[in-house]
Amino acid sequence: MSDVLFIVLAALAGLGGGAALAGFFIKNKHAQQEEETKERIKSMLREAEITAETIKKDRILEAKEKYLKMKAEFDEEMNNKKNIIITNENKVKQLQSQVSKDQEALKRKEAELDSKKENLQAQLHSVQVKKEELDRVTNQRIADLEKIAGLTREEAREQLISMLTEEAQSKASSQIKDILDEAKLTATKQAKKIVLDTIQRTATEHAVENCVSVFNIESDDIKGKIIGREGRNIRALEAATGVEIVVDDTPEAIIISGFDPVRREIARLSLHRLVQDGRIHPARIEEVVAKTEKNIEEEIVEIGERTCIDLGIHGLHPELIKMVGRMRFRSSYGQNLLQHSREVAKLAATMAAEMGLNAKLAKRAGLLHDIGKVWPEEQELPHAILGMELAKRYKEHPEICNAIGAHHDEIEMTSMISPIVQASDAISGSRPGARREIMDSYVKRLKELEELALNFDGVNKCFAMQAGRELRILVDADNVDDQKAGKLSFDISQKIEKEMQYPGQIKVTVIREMRAVNYAR
């Protein structure tokens, strides 16, 4: 409003002094407004500084809080990582210890290889020297023949070739004989070394198979249901499964007897389902047995596939995979056939690797070497020949087929894998604990062990423990002192070593008990 007033006064004053006066007022007004603006700006700046300082303090507090929180989280994380690092360091130490052992073994093998390499280099140098000598003689002969009159160049060449051929054949025969003689001397030693290394690197189990299975029941009342009226249920079950069901006075147990583990397993699973369902009659028994047989077939395929995956064997025909699964339910002299075949596969692969051969082919042949034992159809062929025919039918490698057929010497061996599989089969089958001993011989061995110890003076009682792996001897404390007890333990162990045959080792423990007895009257 004041601006408008100044403009009006300027207009009324005219163009002269009034205009100058109006300009003065306007200029003064602008200066005043500028001062006011500066003041407002200063005030705003002060407020902004105060606000900024407040925000700064808030941000600093927030930053400190966040820092403390992050520091706590970091400390916790570092403690966790520290614990992990300590754990990993312990593992690394263990691995370093194992690696150092492996490195020592590797160094020994490298030393052996270096020695062999030096021998080969020496032989190669000898051959090269002989070759140079032969070349020199050849050149000299050629020069002499060219000087001989009456011989054409072709005739001289033919004579020279004949002489060189005879000389080379003579030297080759001599070298071959030397190599064969050296191989005969070292072959047995190298074979024993490879077999021992392979056995030491293979972990195996003891035989636990038998011809009976036990089906546990909650109460003896169920036995009556399983037998049925006049025994019709048990007869139907035996007819459907092909096993013998023994229901006797054994509490809360039914015995399933049969030589075929597959049949026993089908009978056991069928009984389990029938008891759970509660409906036990001939029609239901046949239905459950049929379903169980189908489930067992599926389980057999699954076992075969899992075995091939575990051993790293690929591309096996589905029928061969099924036969591998059937091995799980077969045994040979108490040794599970699948476990035996897995052992043979691992042993054969280890031997083949040590000898620089194809370890995968050897492992495959080892797994399949006994498939002839699980072929469901009756055949008059030996199981090795039958297994070879099956392998040929399903397009297995010729070396694998030969190894299967030759592992019991029914056919001639044509590859290096065949004797490896044969040796692996012998190792797996003959090692202590692989196959059960006959009960009579087992009991007789334990009795002989006890009688041997009882023949020593001062021995009161003797007990063979731990399946014959430990002999505990009780002595008379009055006749045997501590020093004599130690000597007695040593003497008995020495006599056992000299006079008895046994697998593994036998621990001889002499127990001397001092008893003081008095009577109060």
Automatic annotation (TrEMBL):
Residues 337-430 form the HD domain. Keywords: Cell membrane, Coiled coil, Endonuclease, Hydrolase, Membrane, Nuclease, RNA-binding, Transmembrane, Transmembrane helix. Belongs to the RNase Y family. It comes from Algoriphagus aquaeductus. Endoribonuclease that initiates mRNA decay. This is Ribonuclease Y. Pfam families: HD, KH_1, RNase_Y_N. GO terms for cellular component: plasma membrane. One of its GO terms (molecular function) is hydrolase activity. The keyword Transcription does not apply. GO terms for biological process: mRNA catabolic process. Residues 27-137 form a coiled coil. The keyword Coiled coil applies. Its EC number is 3.1.-.-.
